[in-house]
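subagent[fold] <- orchestrator: predict structure for attached chain, return C-alpha cells only, no commentary.
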Amino acid sequence: MSEQPKKQLIPKKYPMPHQEAEVRSHNFEEVALGYTEETAVAEAGRCIQCKNRNCVEGCPVDVDIPEFIKKITERDFTGAIKIIKEKNNLPAICGRVCPQENQCEKFCTMGKKNEPVAIGRLERFVADWEMANQLEPMVPQKSITKKKVAIVGSGPSGLTAAADLAMLGHQVTVMEALHIPGGVLVYGIPEFRLPKSIVAHEIENIAKLGVEIKPNFVVGKLNTVDELLEDGYDAVYIGTGAGLPSFMSIPGENFNGVYSANEFLTRNNLMKAYRFPDYLTPIKVGQRVAVIGGGNVAMDAARTALRLGAEAYIVYRRSFEEMPARREEMEHAMEEGVHFELLTSPIEIKGNAEGRVVSMVCQRYELGEPDESGRRKPVPIKGDIIEIAVDTVVMAIGQGPNPLVQQTTPDLKTNKWGNIMADDNGVTSKPGVFAGGDIVTGAATVILAMGAGKKAAASIHNYLQSI
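subagent[fold] -> orchestrator:
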C-alpha cells in the first residue's frame, strides 16, 4: 500500500476581509467583515489536531478548540457551535474582541514555525453562522432547584455566571444599573468593533435559559447586598466591573472639552451620540481631539472621534513597542488616519475665557530602563516642552472599581484600590457573596472576566448545595 501524501501546511492565516480604511473611517459599521464558509473551512484545515492541545490551556473558559475546528472542516457548523457553547455563552462577542493572540493562539502549535490557526475568526464564523441560520439556542435538560441567585452587573462576567447557574437549574436574576444590559460590551466597545445587535442577540439567548434581567436596578441604591440576601436570595455574585474613570490631576482638567474615555464612549456607544439627531444625545468633539493613553480604550476613543469628523491624535508617553493595545487595533487606527504623538504626555490643559479647551502643553520623553511591568520607563527630556492645539481631550489612562456596592456592604473586604478581595473561585469575605471580573482584578479583558464568572458559578453551585 502506498503512503498517503502529507498534508500541505499553509503557513499564514487566511486574511480577514475588512472595509477599506478610507470608507470605514467615515462610518460606524463593523470593520471586520468575517470569513466566508469556504475561507472558514480552509482556515480550519490548517489545524493539525495535535495531541498536546495547548490552545485549550490558553483559553480562560476551556473551549474544546480542536474539536470545534474539526467540525468546521467537516462542515458540521451546528456541531461546532454546540461544542463552543458547552463552555462559552458569548462566542460571537469573544470572536470579535478577545485578544486571542495572547491566549489560545499564543499556544497554538502551528504558531511555533508559522502563523497560528485563526481560532478567534473561526469562533466568530460559527457564531455568525448560527445567527444567520436562526438556530434556536440549545437549552439543556436540567433539574430545577429552589435556590435563588442575584447577579449584580450584566457585563461579560455576570452574564457568564448567570448562564452557567441557570443551566445548573438555579433561579437567576441579573440586576443592571443601566437601561440596557451588557455592561462594557454596550457602553465601552464601539459599534464598528462590536455591533450592539450582536450583544443583544447573545443576551437574548441567555435570557432563554431562564435568566431574568432587570435593567435600571442599582444595587447599593434600590437594594443593598445585605437586603438581597434578606429578601430571599441564597447567594449574590458581584460583577460590577471597572467603570470609575481615572484622571491625571494636571492643571486644566476641569475645562469644558475634557472627557474621561468612559463618558466619551458611553455617550457614543450606549446613548448613540454618533446618530444625532436620530438620538438626542449630541457630543461636541471639535476639530482636533487628543486621546491620552495607549490601550484598546484609547484606540476606541480615537477611532470614534475620527468617525465623528475630528482630526484624532493618540498621545502616549512610551513608544509603539510598549503600547498595551492589540496590534490589530493600532494598525486599524493608523490605516484610518489617527495620528500618534509618542514619547509625549500632557502636563497642562489650557482653556479660553469661556472655559473651553484650546490647547495642551506636553512634556517629551525618552525611554530609560525597564520598570516593574517590563516596559522601558519614560524619562522626561529636560526643557523639551511642546504645545498642541486641541478642542477636546479624552483621558484613557485606566479605570477603577465602581465603589457603590463596596460602600454599602461594610463587611466585604476590599484592597487599597477599592477592588473586592476574592479568591480564584470568587469567594469573598462575606458568606454567600461572590465576586469576579474587573471588580476583583482591575480592568482586564472580556474573556478573563468570563473565565472568572465560570469559576464563580461553579463555586456558587457548590455553596448552594451545602446550605
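orchestrator: received. Logging for downstream: The CA atoms of residues 170 and 404 lie 27 Å apart. The first helix runs from residue 21 to 24.
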